[in-house]
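Document type: protein sequence-to-structure record

Subject area: structural biology

Format: plain text, a pair of labelled lines:
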Amino acid sequence: MGASVGPVSPAVMREVLGHFVSGIVVVTAAGPDGPCGFTCQSFASLSLDPPLVSFAPARTSSTWPRIRAAGTFCVNVLAADHQELSAGFARSGVDKFDGVSWRRGPSGAPVLDGVSAWIDCTLWNEYDGGDHTIAVGHVLDLGADPARLPLLFYRGRYGVTSGPPQV
């Protein structure tokens, strides 16, 4: 006889899925009120033909509606020394670009200086993702710096190390 399966708690889901290493990106756009962006951990390559990528902003994000309205955006793959950028773009209610060096990408969206890679996109489509929206971008242009290692996130902290996660 099979075991009874109950609902999965968000805390257990976060703890178990924290064992999957992810990179960290900052999604940016050129909005009518200036540049905007947010930190995102749920980025993935989706399709080679057509060239598509995906990421999942929280439904509570106040930045995603501004990026959606712009229609074009850049996914900036953060480099290993970009922990401060990751934390800065995760904050709300502040000028996230204060002190941040960047240039305009082909779509006009900010490409942050020193990133491992950048992917310039137009919004292809959106899908329901529960408490997140699954956004799909059609890739217009992209580039990478092979010398820049990526910023990794594992078990609640930056980098991949052994031992228990920090609280």
